[in-house]
Amino acid sequence: MKTEGTQTFKPSLTIKTWDPKIEPAIFQKWQEQGIYKFSKTSKKPTFSIDTPPPYVNIPVHIGQAYTYVWMDVFARYKRMTGHKVLFPMGLDKNGLPVEVQTEKYFKISMHETPREEFIEKCKRILKESGDQSLDTFKRLGLSCNSWSLEHKVGGRYETDDPEYRRLTQQTFIEFWNNGLIYEDEKTTNYCPVCGTTISDAEVEYEEEETELNYIKFKLQETGQDLIIATTRSELLCSCRTVIFNPDDERYKNLEGKHAIVPIYGNAVKIQSHPYAKPEFGSGLVMICSFGDYSDVRILRELNLDPVYAIDPKGKMNSNAGRYSGLSVKEARKRITEDLKTQGLHVKTEKLVQRRPVCWRSKNPIEFVPMKEIYLKQIEFKDALLCMADRMAFFAPESKQILVDWINSIGIDWVISRRRFYGTEIPLWYCKKCGYTYVPHTGMYYQPWREKPPIDKCPKCGSTEFKGEERTFDTWFDSATSEAYILGCLWNKTFFEKNFPCTLRPQGKEIVRNWLYFTMLKSHLLFNKAPFLNVWINMHVVDEEGRKISKSDPKTWIDPQEDINRFGAEAFRIWSGLEGNITKGDIRYSFERVKGTSKFLTKLWNIARYISSFPQASEGYRLAPLDKMILAKLNGLIRECAVGYEEMNVFAATTAIRTFTWNLFADHYVEAAKSRAYNRDGTFSLELQRGAWFTLHKCLETILKLLAPISPFITEALWLELYSKESIHVQNFPKETPEWKSDFIELLPNFVEFNNTVWRYKKSRGLALSEEIAAPIYALVQLEPLKEDLKAMHKITNLAFGKPKNPEGFDELSEGIFAAK
Ligand SMILES: [Zn+2]
Ligand SMILES: [Zn+2]
C-alpha cells in the first residue's frame, strides 16, 4: 500500500488540449448509437418541445443558432432528469420567402409562370437551402430525435410535406363544417409586391421620413381657404370627410359645413372627431380611403362608403382621374407639382412617421377591397385570454406581449393568400350553380390541378367544377405544429396522452402570429391550451445593438463561419454565459466568443491534472478542506437545477463557471495539491485518498452539470476518464446529504487568506513555491485547515488567532498577520 501513496503521478488524459476538430466525430457517434432517438414505448414521462421550424431559404441566422442551443440545453437537461424528450427538427418551407427568392434567382414573375413549373423551381431552391440549414444545426450538436424525414413521432418534419399539408387541410375542413369559416369582401391589408392579402399579424411598422404637405381646400359655404396637412396627397380623390377635434375652438364653426377638395372639386362634409389632434398640422384632417388604419376605422364608424384609389398592383386606378395608372409614389410627386402650379400648395414640412409595411417584403401595404376567406376569431378573444392564464410564461412578463395583441384584434383572421407555394385551400366550386364543395378529411388535395372527389354537383347535377386556386396563410400551417409533432395524424393514443405539448420556445416577434394562432386553432380544435409552458426569447443583435440582417452586410454574421473557426462548443458556452435572452437582447461579438471559450481550455487543463490521480472509492478520509468544497458542490448542484428548471441557461452556466474556475481550480485544487501528491509523506494515505476522491467527485459532477450546455467537451472527458457509456444518458447529479457541512462557512475566509498570502509573497519577491519562514497568523476559524494551508503556501510557522506581541507583526488584511 505504501507504494500507492508515493508513486509518481502522470495524467492519464494524454491529449494536451481541447480540440474542436473532434466535434463532428462525437456527433457522428451519437447518431450511430441513436442515444437521442425518441422511444414511444419508454415508461418515462414525456417532455415535448414544439421547436420553431426555421424558415430555410436563408443561411441560419445567428439568433436561431443561439436560441436552438438553449432549446437543446432544455432537451438535454430533461433527458438527464428522467424524461423521454420529444425534440423534433422541423423546417418551414411554405410561403412567400421561397417564392420571392425563386422569382429573383430565375428572373421570373410568379403570376406569369405556369404554376406547376414555378413550384418545381421553388423545390429546387428549397432542397439546397434546407440541406444547408440542417448542416448548421448538426454542426451545433443539437440532440434532435432524428435528422431524416419520417412520418412518425420524433421524425424530422417539413411544412410543405403532403402529410403536413394534409393536417392543415383537415383543420380547415373541420372549421368549415363547424361554421367557423366565411368568405367576405372587406378592406384588407394588401402587399402589392407580394401580390396578396396579408393579415394584421403580418403587418410591421417602419419609421420613415416623409413630407407633410399643407394644401388649400375651400369652404363651400363661404369660399374661405381651409389649410389641411397630409402626407398622402395622391389620395385626394378618395377623401370622404374632413375632421377636427371637438375641443378645437378654431374650427367649431365648421361643424356640418363642407370642404371642396382641390383638383377634383367635389365637396365633403366637415365634422368633429376625437381622432383629429389640434397640434398636428393645421388641426384639420382629411380622411381618405385608405391612407392608414385610422382611415379604415373612422370611415367604418361614420358609415361612409370608401372610394378606392389604388389597385392591387399598387397603381392609381380610374378614380384618380388624370393620375390613373401611375404608381403611388409618382402620383404623389405629380399631384404635389400640380398643386404648386395652381397655387394650392402652402408649404412642406419634414415628418418622421411609422408606416405599416409587409413583414416579409418590407414594402408599404395598401388597403384594398378583396374577397377573401376568414376564420372567426373575434368572438374567442376572451377564451384566449383565459387560455393565456393557463400557460406558464418564461419570462413571466413576456405574457403581456400576447395579452396586448389579443386585446388589439379587431377583425377576423384572413387565411387565404393569392400565392402558389403553400397549402392549397381544399374547395371546389360548381361552375353552373356556384355550389361550394368541401371534401372529406384524410387526403391531401390540390384543387388547382385535380378534379374534385365527386362526379357531379349535389345541388344541380353539373359535372363542371372549378378548383380553388388560393393557398393558406403560412401561419395557418405552422399554427398546428404542436399537434403534428405529437402525432395526431398517426397515433391518436399517444397524442391524447401527451397533449398539451410541454414547451413552446419561440421569438417575441412571432408571439402575435405563431403563438397566438396556435392557441386559436388549439382552442377551436381541442378546446385546450396547446402548451404547458411558453419560453419567449428576445433578439441577438450586433455589437452596436443593431438588428442582424442578411440584407445589411454591415451587420450580417454567418454562424457557420464562426463555428468552423472556434468550434460549436465555443459558440455554445458563449451563448450560455452572455446573458438571459428572455430578459433582453444579446449582443454578438466574435471577440466575446473567443474570450468565453477560454473556459474550455481551463476545464481541459483541470481535468488533465486530476486525471493524474486514481479515483478513491473506498479507504479514504475527508479532510475539512474536502468537506468544505463538497458542501459547496451541493450548493452548485442546487443552483444549476434551479437555473435549468427555470429555463435560465445563463444562471446555470455562470454558476458552473464561477465554481469551477474561481473556486475549485484557483483555490481547492491548489490547496489539495500537496496532499494529493503527498511526496514527503506528511499526510496519511486515507487523507491523501480523501483529496483524490474529492478532486474526482468535483470534476465528475461539473462535467454532468455542464453536459447540457457543452455536450462535446464533457463527452470527450467523460469517456476518457469515467465510463464507456455516454455522459448524455447519465442522471443529472443530486445533492448528497452526507456532504452537508458547517465547514462551508470557512470558504470566504479561506479564499481571503490565500489571496493575502499570494499578495504577500509577491510583495516580498518570493515565488509561490518558496517557503515563508516568518511566522504567520490566520483567523482562528481556519484552524481545521491548518495542514493543507501550511503545505499549500509552504508556511513553516502557521499559528491562529492574534499574535501575543502585535507590535512585531504587520496586519496583512483583517485577522491575518505576518512577522515584520
Ligand atoms: Zn409583401
Ligand atoms: Zn351545381
Could you characterize what this model shows?
The protein is α/β, with parallel strands linked by helices and 820 residues long. Helices cover 38% and strands 17% of the residues. Helix 9 (381-389) packs across helix 14 (511-526) and helix 15 crosses helix 16 (568-577). Residues 191, 193-194, 358, 360-361, 363 line the site of one zinc ion.
Radius of gyration: 35 Å
Question: Count of helical segments?
Answer: 24
Structural class: alpha/beta
Report the count of strand segments.
29
Largest sheet: 7 strands, mixed
Poorly predicted regions are none
How much beta, percentage-wise? Answer: 15-25%
> Which range best describes the helical content: under 10%, 10-25%, 25-40%, 40-55%, 55-70% or over 70%?
25-40%
Query: Roughly what is the average pLDDT, rounded to an integer?
Result: 94
Given the C-alpha coordinates, what overall shape results?
elongated
The kinds of small molecule bound in this structure are: zinc ion
Distance between the termini: 44 Å
